[in-house]
Amino acid sequence: MKKIKKTDVQWREELPHDVYMVCRRHATEPAFSGALNNCKDVGTYICACCGQELFNSTNKFDSGTGWPSFFQSISQNCITKKEDTSHGMRRIEVQCSKCDSHLGHLFNDGPEPTHLRYCINSLSLKFLKDK
Prior knowledge:
Blueprint: H1 8-14, H2 17-25, E1 43-47, E2 53-56, E3 60-61, E4 69-70, E5 79-84, E6 91-96, E7 102-107, E8 117-120, E9 125-129
Antiparallel strand pairs: 1-2, 1-9, 3-4, 4-8, 5-6, 6-7, 7-8
């Protein structure tokens, strides 16, 4: 996979403001505000910045948190995990491995079989419905 490298100015010019703020500035959309939180369609969730496939709808679950939640990514190679100590907490941030876009955070309170919860901002994703 070839890594995508762009300047902050390029990202700011290419992305809608709200997507830029979440994906490039690590903002968080308000709970229950994202268009993909209640999506029940079958398909693939891709990175809003570069189009890399990240999550399958079959791995999505309703966590009740207000953000799209998944118990597993499409592959271990599509997600980068980083320690995040902002806001006085210790969390695991998840990013797109291709463009370093901020997606959300990873928690250990998900369902079986992984017990993981990828808590992802809707704004960091696009959804491709299966045909």
